[in-house]
Write a structure and sequence with these properties.
This protein is an alpha+beta fold and 214 residues long. It has 4 helices and 10 strands. Strands 1, 2, 3, 4, 5, 6, 7, 8, 9 and 10 form a 10-stranded mixed beta sheet that branches.
């Protein structure tokens, strides 16, 4: 499969759509981790790193799909609602959108930063519009590593959004992140378990405020 513009294949976009319609949890040891506020979070142990991959399924009420996609992609607005953002911006590089993102870590740990490709597509499936956003870590010379900040080399995220048939969004998200450094895997996994639901709650609140802002 030839990569589409942005380094992603059409198949990757279709896979995210398919997972939104029918969760693919069979054939691997996916465990239900958290069930909260209409959101189910599953995890799968990555044997190589000792860290977990995550799949998130659920509904964010009163957040229409187009609005949710816009909020997710509005990096300037993200600085206002995501307390962990130290710096974030995007640049065009060889016709692709590349995002730089620095995340605040609590003392005494070093901050982490990410450089990743990101692409959005709108697809039709069974008459329903689905917004899909894919992100994956990359390396480009314009984003040199900073002293005192650890560059995350393994980061991957997929997000698929469609209407829940009311005023909200049905959401699928895949997430894997290896922050590197000397952080014990149990602490990373604990932070992810708590951080993913909190991120979704914060994003839902951000959607409501975004409506008032625009």
């Amino acid at each position: 499969m030839e990569p589409a513009a942005g380094g992603f294949s059409e198949e990757q976009f279709r896979e995210a759509c398919a997972e939104l319609q029918q969760p693919a949890l069979a054939g691997a040891d996916w465990q239900l981790l958290v069930e909260t506020l209409g959101i189910n979070i599953y995890r799968l142990l990555d044997q190589q790193t000792g860290l977990y991959e995550y799949k998130v399924f659920g509904v964010l009420e009163d957040c229409p799909p187009a609005l949710l996609a816009d909020v997710y992609l509005d990096l300037d607005y993200r600085k206002q609602w995501d307390q962990y953002v130290r710096e974030v911006y995007e640049k065009e590089y060889n016709g692709e959108t590349v995002v730089y993102w620095e995340v605040k870590y609590p003392f005494p740990m070093s901050n982490r930063d990410y450089v990743y490709l990101r692409q959005r597509q709108e697809l039709e499936m069974e008459g329903q519009k689905i917004y899909v956003i894919l992100a994956q870590s990359t390396s480009v010379p314009q984003f040199a590593e900073k002293p005192g900040v650890i560059r995350v080399k393994q980061y991957k995220q997929s997000l698929a959004i469609e209407s829940d048939g009311k005023k909200g969004s049905k959401v699928f998200m895949y997430y894997f992140d290896n922050p590197g450094g000397q952080i014990p895997s149990w602490l990373i996994n604990w932070a992810a378990k708590n951080g993913v639901p909190n991120f979704l709650k914060d994003m839902a609140k951000a959607c409501h405020r975004y409506l008032k802002k625009t």
